[in-house]
């Protein structure tokens, strides 16, 4: 009798536990379902937003990217082809005594990073992505013979990244470089100020520096009151240094400056010539003429 009562009690407790477990399980499933629906709505809202495709693309292509490593394309050469071009915007000053030229320029750098490619069809037709300078590998381009320690503007602007991996980095800068001034033919003189660009650490087997245009762009040049910029042809040179077996290429833009002589002719040469002529005529006058 007692054993039968215990058995009935055990069966009752077992049934209660089963009912509690089933009910609690339904609650967990319901909560999980609600969370999934909430996440789904959140994701739907994220992808339907105007910025979300760009953010999604950026997070995917930069997921395993290291900006400190030079781009490497599987099956291709290790050399990164870098194009260096510039547009001269304004000649600010040519300090002749100190032989320093100051100019506003627009730098135009272009290369390819095959680690950063995507299919526009998978990202709502996005073909261009603008990202901060610090997120990409950037060539350590240097301007030789510059006066200031810093290359102004080099780290201040976003970079344009295209779907095929091509990278364009355009930024304005103010450059100050040494320019040897020869005033032998003053005021009818012409000066040549070179702007030489090269990598500071990479040799030519890792970074091949060229120029697409092989001339400075002068189409947006502002006029200077004293000088005329006649041209800016570029040439590429490869240098070798002692005990280093690697080539070091560079691109140099020779900026030709022609002085405007009118001011000096009008205010210096003509008055000096007239004063000299009057002085000579003074010696030709008779002594008794008074």
UniProtKB/TrEMBL annotation:
Parts of the chain that traverse the membrane: 6-23, 263-285
Alphabetical list of Pfam families matching this protein: Neur_chan_LBD
Species of provenance: Mytilus galloprovincialis (Mediterranean mussel)
Membrane topology: Multi-pass membrane protein
Keyword Acetylation on entry: no
Organism taxonomic ancestry: Eukaryota, Metazoa, Spiralia, Lophotrochozoa, Mollusca
Domain named Neurotransmitter-gated ion-channel ligand-binding: residues: 58-261
Family designation: Belongs to the ligand-gated ion channel (TC 1.A.9) family.
Signal peptide annotation: none
Name of the protein in its database record: Neurotransmitter-gated ion-channel ligand-binding domain-containing protein
Keyword Transport in annotation: yes
CDD domains: LGIC_ECD_nAChR
GO cellular component terms attached to this protein's record: postsynaptic membrane
Top-level division of the source organism's lineage: Eukaryota
